Amino acid sequence: MSLLAAAVLSATATTSIYSDYPTFANPNAVIEAYTNKGPILNLIVKCPGGAGIMSHSRIERLCCSSKHNCSASLRTAMHDTSR
């Protein structure tokens, strides 16, 4: 096995990505799903016209809308994503 293949295999084995779907347990939840990628959470949120994708940085403590506008408030980023 080449050194590159070994490095890719070990990085894949040690990377933990976790997804959850809170709307299965609570259909009224605002967040339909999220994927935990360590310092970044990718969120799929309910919008009046469907769904929107946004992110939350745990390090910077910012929520960023799909329009690349970041805010400390989850509601502000959700509102910007849903417009």
Describe this structure in words.
The structure is a single chain. The chain is α+β, with helices and mostly antiparallel strands and 83 residues long. The protein has two helices and six strands; from the N terminus they run αββββββα. A six-stranded antiparallel sheet has the order 1-2-3-4-5-6, with helices on one face. The radius of gyration is 16 Å and the shape is flat.
List keywords for this structure.
single chain; 83 residues; alpha+beta; six-stranded antiparallel sheet; 2 helices; 25% helix; 36% strand; flat
Share of helix, binned: 25-40%
How would you classify the helix and strand content by structural class?
alpha+beta
Q: Could you give the order of strands across the largest sheet? A: 1-2-3-4-5-6
Biggest sheet details: 6 strands, antiparallel
Q: What's the alpha carbon Rg, rounded to whole Å?
A: 16 Å
Q: Runs with pLDDT <50, length 5+?
A: 7-14
What is the residue-mean pLDDT, rounded to a whole number?
81
Supply the number of structural domains.
1
What is the number of helical segments per DSSP (H or I, 4+ residues)? 2
| Beta-strand content | 35-45%
Shape: flat
Calculate the terminal CA-CA distance, rounded to whole Å: 50 Å
